Amino acid sequence: MIGSINGFSKLNKEEKINWIAKTYLNNQEAVVDLIKQYWNSDEELQKLHDEFIENTITNFYLPLGIAPNFLINDTWYTIPMVIEESSVVAAASKAAKFWADRGGFKASILNTEKIGQVHFIYKGEKQKLEQFIQSIQGVFLTDTFSITQNMQKRGGGILSVTLRDKTDAIPNYYQLHVTFETKDSMGANFINSCLEQMATTLKREALQYAAFTEDEKAIDVVMSILSNYVPNCVVRAEVSCPVEELKSSEIQDPVLFAEKFVQAVRIAEIEPFRAVTHNKGVMNGVDAVVLATGNDFRAIEAGVHAYASRNGQYSSLSHASIEAGIFRFWIDLPLAVGTVGGLTSLHPMVKIALQMLQKPSATQLMQIIAVAGLAQNFAAVKSLTTTGIQQGHMKMHLMNILNQFKATDEERVKVVTHFEKNVVSHSAVVELLETLRK
Ligand code: HMG
What we know:
Bound molecules: 3-hydroxy-3-methylglutaryl-coenzyme A
Mean pLDDT: 96
Shape: globular
CATH topology of the largest domain: 3-hydroxy-3-methylglutaryl-coenzyme A Reductase, Chain A, domain 2
Strand order of the largest sheet: 3-8-10-9
CATH class of the largest domain: Alpha Beta
Strand content: 15-25%
Number of helices: 17
Helix content: 40-55%
CATH architecture of the largest domain: Alpha-Beta Complex
């Protein structure tokens, strides 16, 4: 069958590319050459990237940009951002400068607890199960000691093991709900290893528990896995200043600006259609730093959006207020990130990004990421409630349009000069290019 193949994983890289070229790309040599052009000439570096994932055929570049001038808890940071979308880095940088002149960002850790669960089926008396779980608390800890001993030396480990009854939703379904402290690691492997050992312990001890009937002894573990929902691993970032200090070359009427800004955030708090886009603006900043520092953006995304829905309706992640003449804008974000393990010591650009951030601990990185999200959100909502988003966004997007139309250096200079005084739109750029090319 065309398009299906057995043993693809066993082919070498050249063979994989050849199969793709033959099957999907009409054997076009130019396309194959382009795929190979993205290989790194340093073979060792290329091998490192090849082995990050499976069936690698080439690299897929994203730009690494820099947002300077972030004053966070009185320390200056230059934030690395990996993102494909124009105007995000500029917006973050602009918001950083704006708030640096007004005392900077304040960030604090609210808590750092991670969660994992063993999901299991138990057919029997609930009270007996409760007593059983209570009786083997110590065994869970001794059985996992070989996994947790190093983490314990660093001040982390298993914090609690509780039984959760979910039989209302699914017959006979219970959970071991386990909480962890994983210090500077994101902790996924650590947590999953602990949970799998705990599942083994659970089944083994149940078979030996004298009070159980034969049915009760036959605990069936469905799965053991960490949760990417971390509502107790939360960082707060905020900015504040007297309303009149919001005045700038762009904000002539700070009272009006502050009121409209708070109104826009309020709309995102109560209206899910707006909240999703509002939070997308937050994640522009968050994901870019998460990626640059080698963390798992899918885990962060999933957890953050679950958190945004925690009260039963999807809502804004950020909040704003004016109280006693003080404008305040803040965000609480659940962020399970690491500065050791995973890609952090493998990807050369991640190592540089972490160095640039002054080798942060996981909690410092949580604060930096939350600030990047808040800054991004501030820039977007400021634009939305003043000039509109398109003016700044399209100004930054201009280069992409020029690249799309393969503009020459001479054309670029002319187009950029023209749009210094005119609003950029796709059609206006195309029109101007056509005029220049006549
Ligand atoms: P501007 O006022 O035209 O910029 O803003 P400027 O040329 O006057 O420069 C001021 C500062 O902005 C610079 O200071 C930089 O910090 C930064 P300087 O470096 O000169 O000391 N800046 C730049 N940094 C790097 N490269 C550049 C650059 N240009 C300015 N080329 C800007 C232009 C785009 C910053 C502004 O209009 C803005 O913040 N817009 C918001 C853009 C935004 O939010 N983009 C995200 C994509 S849209 C989206 O996905 C989310 C959204 O839907 C979310 C939501 O709905 O809430 C909007």
